[in-house]
Amino acid sequence: MHAPENLPDEALVYKRVLLKLSGEALMGSQSFGIDMAVCQAFAREIRVAQETGSEICLVIGGGNIFRGLAGAAQGMDRAQADSMGMLATVMNALALQGALENFGIETRVQSAIPMESVCEPYIRRRAIRHMEKGRIVIFAAGTGNPFFTTDTGAALRAAEMGCDAMLKGTQVDGVYSADPKTDAGATRYEHLGYQDVLARDLRVMDASAVSLMRDTNIPIVVFSLHQEGAFRDILYGRGTYTVISNEKKVGS
Predict the structure, then answer these.
(1) Is 183 within the bounds of a domain?
(2) Can you give the pTM of this predicted structure?
């Protein structure tokens, strides 16, 4: 989508948002773990976005450290493997918190699995108050339950926080009809309906997350966080991205 480049501060389209990042995004060029240079780059983009006056919360996956489904596929008990994956998201959240605080941004990590010695427990009203005070809140440990992905955890927190949108930062600048990295003819959609995503099995997020966003009427905005300033631009309704909502159907 494209909009005028110079919009006034009061023209924010999204005032309160949840940003969903994959754990793999934190790896950078590594094959495992956390690349702190990447964390710093993401923190810089989040700081620029926060300077618009928006209230921001985040959810980060744990696939760069441990993925529950992978553990289950190797014979682990699924509930136990998912618990390990949730702990991986706490590690990622603490790493990003450190990067954000290096930029002077007050940040709180709230975990769905209580571990008060390293972060706060998830308390909905406290999280909202943190954002109202200008702090970034990072939600860790998914929903706190096995068998649910961090996509679903992000959708749940976006609904609980009353977010205007859930933003998903990916490797590409929107949702395509095919993988644009391997198919030169892939078409980027500007608008999709929730049902279009589910019916076409576009794999933007898992089905339960998309369904919850549909039921709560919170749009999903898919964009590339690797493009400098993209996060900030979306808050003003400009830049390149795909919106998934009840308002529009398939378009390009």
Answers:
(1) no
(2) 0.91
